[in-house]
Each structure stands twice: as C-alpha cells, then as structure tokens.
Amino acid sequence: MPPLYKKALIIGATSGIGASLAAKLHAEGTAVIVTGRRRDRLDAFVASHPNGSSAAAAAVLDITKLDSIPAFAADVTRQHPDLDALVLNAGIQRPFDFARPESVDLRLFGEEFTTNYVAFVHLATAFLPHFQRLSKEKEKEKAHLVFVSTTLALVPALVRAPGYNASKAALHSWVLNLRQQLKDAGYAGIKVVEVFPPAVQTELHDTKHQPDLVNGGEIGMPLDAFTEQMYEGLVRGDEQFAVGPQQEWVANGFEAERVRIFQQGQLAIKQALARFVKK
Fold this sequence. Notes:
Layout: E1 7-11, H1 16-27, E2 31-36, H2 39-48, E3 56-60, H3 69-79, E4 85-88, H4 106-135, E5 143-148, H5 162-184, E6 190-196, H6 223-236, E7 240-242, H7 247-251, H8 254-273
C-alpha cells in the first residue's frame, strides 16, 4: 500500500497528537516535516527518525506570530515543492471562570483563540496557493488540509474551558465554509479533512498548563490508541470523522444531520443572493 501522503507538514509536533501522528506517518512511508517552538524536541524527533524513503525534517515555528507565517509558508514550499499535506494540530486549553470576572486573564483568552483558530486560518491561507497549483496538475486528489479539532467543537460540555470550546467551534464553522468554497471554485483536488478527537492523554491537561489539575496527563484516551484510529480514519478518506465514544455524532448522528442542513442551506442562500451579488 502506498504512503498516505508524499510529504506532510505537521503543525504542533513537539508533543502529543502532533508528534505521535508524525511518527505514525513516517513509519507508514510519508516524509514528514515537524514544526513547533521547541527546537530540542524537533531535533530529537529528526534524530530518532533517520532519513530514508520517508525523510524527517524540522522547522521552528511559533504560530502565534501571525506576521511570520507567509514567509514561513513560502520558505517551506520552496524547499519542499512535493509537500502535499498540511496537518494543523497545535492547540492550548486554559480554564476560565467568567462567574469570577476578576480572575479572567483576557490576554490568555486571546492567546488561546489565536492559537486554536486564528493561526490555523493564517496557515491555511498561506499554504493554499501551493495546494491549488498542486491540485490542478492532475485530475485527482493531490493535496490535503487536515484540521485536528475536538468533539467539544460540537458540544461545549467542558464548561471550565469556554475559550477552548469556542475557538474550536469557530474553527469547525470556518472549515465547513472553506471546504465548500474550494469545491465551488473547482478545486476538487484539495481534500479538506476535520478530525474530532475525544480527550486524549497529552500535555494539554498537565499541571503546567492547567495548574488546578492533578495528574491531568492521565485524562482521556491513550495517545497510541487514538493515533492508530485517527490514521485509520485518514486512510478511509472521510471529510470529517470523530475518534472515540462520539464517533456516531459525526457518522450518523446530529452532526451528520447538521452537515446535511448546511448543504441545503448554503445552496438556498447562494441562490437567493445571486441577484444581489456583483458579478
């Protein structure tokens, strides 16, 4: 079986889901470029995944520095013209109690929204011209945008983290629109995928990032098990899918129905606005 992608850029690959998925892709024959802020971890990944048919490379990136993203994308695509997959995975989760407004650090709230949503929009926008060129080369899917979201984007049940829930919900809404815009513009060769993980045992919940939690890294699904199931979903080729207990929400449940309503609604609104939009 051929590799899932030729070469994938993994955003947020110094730990957790990003690092684990990068290792899985590499093991299955995809060349990977890992990114993140921590150079020592990137170097360790490259050293432990030696060059071969699926070479590993690394690039330091702080996605909150939005102005640096266009130059980063230009540099990556110049060095790696065969890049055919972008996996947007970085994320942070912070507790905020708006019932105690004096305790809310709005600077951290804004940083969370930038990391989880705004930076993804900037990254996708910066890499889209490359993928648009790539997708037009042949009449088949050649480019992949993979967004790692969360089931909390669908049901914001983690009330202690309202910023995280809202940022991922915003991302989900934007991804639906992005996918439709690309289809409408004739870019069938760009596949936009959204993955909805459950809670997974990563640094997201550790005491360093959420000081009121104890042994937070033990919360959720084991990372290796999640990665295997996520990879299976990517191979399967669904435009969106969940891993874990909420799989039915997306496959056959309320989210599947919501996507159906979206498809009907966007078409109806497009037709209704046709005579009002300048040609």
